[in-house]
Design goal:
Distance between the termini: 63 Å
Helix content: 25-40%
Radius of gyration: 34 Å
Length: 566
């Protein structure tokens, strides 16, 4: 029975009886009823207090619950574990999902609240301004990492976002910003700023954007890493206080702020400490011609990493690099989005020529192309290529060769077939892929369109594998002799290929085994839901039975949804 409801009902009954007797009873009867009512209410109130105490005791017991880990690890270690969980949760969930760890128990909450580093990575705008201020308070004096990802829907000029973060920039260590401060804004002095990533909105005024970036950089004497989509190399670097300390520079060019070829060549020629060069976005017409007879060279003596987005096909003609320890470990990242392979190879050939002038064997020893992604273009007979070396890949991570086919957009009349891709690129890129250890063939990114076309191209892949062109012999040598893992990911049910497709793999793989090149791993991935589980199970059994003798490990699995490659 609900105690509060019982009290109200009794009060109502007693009041009703009291008022009914007032007209016929004297004062003694009224006093008696009031006394009786007060006694009943007091008894119920005491019972209610007892229930409240029980609830409070249970809540206290819940809050005092201590997981087993707390009895093993001191609070300092537990706080560091929380810090790692924050990074994981931010990647997988909402940026503030990690706060759920403070709701497990009182001990965990106390540990979290006493560890300001947990609250130093702040995204703005938050759901409300008060949360931002509370996070700032909890971070105490810890250097901040601020992410100003966007501005309010009614804050078109970014003024509200700027007003919120400006008072805290003096103790900010890392800033990612996508707004432009209002005109006339003066930046505070930022002595702790070590990393700045500033990508202005694409529709922003380029002249205002450039002025804003320059005014900010003057206030950051200890900046070590800079990312910007406004081109800021040139004479202005002579005025920057951090020019002698900058170690990492990433510039994403746009049409309004791209440098001239002469400026880029002059910049590269004086980077004497450069250890990593990453070129991205190979396309034609990205750079303009210089209109000045004198080109200023920025003095960045300690710059180790330079990443340039939007590299023109003509950049191969102006690349100039010093040949000390600078060229060692250079990386090539040419993202050929809407670009043919000729432009990429032009740049790669130029870099090869440059590096051959360096230490003996530098090219083979230091430059490793870990991944080549090849996609069919939508409407042109061109190939999109991406070459890069993973930033956190430990040497000697083997190279990876990826084929990606965007089936729904492929036009059979204008796009390259798998055979054409192989003939045109694998042979042409042989110096890059001859040491490839892992081969991925991705069968597409969508299962919503043109399944007939998907099946057609998948059969092309199987036929190419079975024709000994890719895994068999070529020019009296084993094609891609160092392949250790082959992964084929299909758009349609792999069971539809049946026995002929399985046997098509046996010949070239057996030939490789006879030559001493055994395939260690074969992975077949089905990107569709198993509409016919029995057929799929039989397919997997047949695959293992046919290939287990010539392949170290055979695996068939589902990965519903596929993946995209950019």
């Amino acid at each position: 029975m609900n105690t509060v409801l019982s009290i109200r009902e009794i009060q109502h009954e007693l009041d009703t009886e009291l008022f009914s007797r007032l007209s016929v009873s004297g004062t003694e009867q009224v006093d008696c009823l009031l006394k009786e009512q007060r006694g009943i209410i007091k008894g119920l109130q005491d019972s209610l207090v007892k229930h409240h105490r029980i609830v409070a005791a249970i809540q206290a017991h819940r809050n005092s619950f201590v997981p087993t880990i707390n009895s093993i690890l001191p609070s300092e270690i537990l706080a560091e574990i929380f810090l790692q969980l924050v990074h994981v949760y931010k990647l997988q969930f909402d940026k503030y999902y990690w706060m759920k760890i403070t709701h497990v128990c009182r001990y965990w909450r106390d540990v979290a609240l006493s560890f300001p580093r947990l609250f130093s990575d702040i995204h703005f705008p938050t759901r409300d301004h008060h949360k931002f201020e509370e996070l700032i308070r909890l971070s105490d004096t810890t250097p901040l990492t601020l992410h100003v990802d966007d501005y309010y829907s009614d804050d078109e000029d970014g003024s509200r976002s700027w007003e919120a973060i400006a008072p805290h920039l003096s103790r900010t260590r890392s800033l990612l910003m996508r707004i432009i401060p209002p005109l006339g804004t003066s930046w505070p002095y930022c002595p702790q700023m070590a990393s700045l990533a500033w990508k202005v909105p694409p529709d922003a005024d380029p002249f205002r954007s450039k002025d804003a970036v320059h005014s900010a950089l003057v206030c950051m004497p200890n900046l070590r890493s800079l990312t910007s989509n406004i081109y800021i190399l040139g004479a202005v670097w002579f005025k920057m206080p951090f020019a002698s300390t900058l170690t990492s520079l990433e510039i994403c060019h746009n049409r309004c702020s791209s440098p001239s070829l002469e400026e880029l060549g002059a910049a590269l020629s004086v980077l004497t400490s450069l250890t990593t060069l990453i070129l991205e976005g190979v396309r034609k017409g990205c750079y303009k011609l210089s209109t000045s007879s004198h080109v200023s060279c920025p003095q960045l003596p300690h710059l180790q990493l330079l990443r340039l987005h939007g590299i023109d096909t003509e950049v191969a003609n102006i690349l100039k690099l010093p040949f000390r320890s600078a060229a060692i470990g250079m990386k090539l990242n040419a993202d050929g989005y809407y670009t043919d392979g000729v432009a990429l190879m032009s740049i790669y050939s130029r870099l090869t020529t440059i590096l051959q002038g360096g230490p003996q064997g530098m090219l083979n020893r230091e430059i490793r192309v870990c991944r080549i992604n090849i996609r069919c273009s939508d409407f042109q007979r061109t190939v999109q290529i991406k070459i890069w070396e993973g930033d956190q890949v430990a040497y000697p991570e083997p190279p990876v060769l990826d084929f990606f086919f965007d089936y729904p957009s492929r036009n059979p009349q204008t796009s390259l077939s798998f055979f054409e891709l192989y003939d045109r690129l694998i042979v042409g890129l042989w110096p890059l892929v001859s040491n490839t250890r892992v081969l991925h063939i991705d069968g597409g990114v969508s299962v919503t369109d043109n399944h007939l076309l998907a099946a057609q191209i998948e059969h092309e892949i199987i036929q190419c594998l079975g024709s000994a062109k890719l895994l068999g012999s070529m020019y009296d040598t084993v094609s891609l002799p160092h392949i250790q893992e082959l992964r084929i990911s299909f758009i349609g049910p792999v069971a539809a290929f049946g026995d002929p497709s399985l046997k098509a793999l046996v010949g070239p793989l057996s030939s490789r085994l006879e030559r001493g090149y055994k395939l260690e791993n074969l992975i077949i991935v089905d990107n569709c839901y198993p509409s016919t589980p029995n057929d799929h199970h039989q397919f997997a059994q047949d695959l293992v039975q046919n290939l287990s003798a010539i392949v170290g490990r055979v695996e068939v699995r589902y990965e519903v949804g596929g993946w995209y490659c950019y």
